[in-house]
Amino acid sequence: MKCLVPLLLASLALISCKPAGGPASSTATGKPKVALVMKSLANEFFQTMAEGAKKHQSAHAADYELTVNGIKNETDLAEQVGLVDQMVSQGVQAIVIAPADSKALVTVLKRAKAAGVLIINIDNKLDADALKQAGLSVPFVGPDNRAGAKAVAEVLAKKLKAGDEVAIIEGVTTAFNGQQRKAGFEDAMNAGGMKIVTSQSGQWEMEKANGIAAGILAANSNVKALLCANDNMALGAAAAVQSAGKTGQVQIVGFDNIAALKPLLADGRVLATCDQHGDQLAVFGIEAALKVLKGKTTPADQQTPVDVVTK
To answer: pTM to 2 decimals?
Structure first.
């Protein structure tokens, strides 16, 4: 037993030399470790985002390691906060995050940055006032959601006439991208002289949007269109229109260009959507993070493409 004592003491000495707190400069392999923290993986858009990120890492396996995770639903803020803390404790060098809420994630991201973690914001922009109040600077890599939504709604405007009644089904009201998409829809509808009779939140979810759309159609018999802030909600709205026997009478537009929407675009149940290239959105953020980590650039905003998609 005595011969084991020096070995135990040596092991303890090695353990005590391990740096405490904050992420290491790289993983044991010498490669930086990047974490992708997304919103709901029940949403096809984020599944596509995750697959795109994994493919990029596989093609650049020598350059970095990747951890991919997301929350159960769009509104589970506590779970997303927990994921950020978990990634910091695991020693990642960068977190690329699509925040579920533009304000609620600022505090935990400030903690992460204080621990030495690089933060890159994608998809849903963090609130500028909340960042300023926290003394936090985080680059946003993502699309102009307002411009994209306006472009989609302009396709719809060509199918309507001034005075026609329309309704908006919003995303989570505290999400910046949801706010911007609503504003884009309003820009195009107001310019075309359409009447927005109501705007309600479907919280990005198909089932909730279905119920809201059904209620809107029942309360507003003259509604000619439903403008949905994502394709999940457009799918729910289309089902409500079909149940109300108004297919072809009520136009629908969405946002995201998910695969599940393509049959509805093909047969005209949905008029248009906006492709923000979900399979590349996380990749844009990851590449921006890697450039900063390698010292080749400083953190900066980067606008990514959006394209209108129709039949």
So the answer is: 0.86
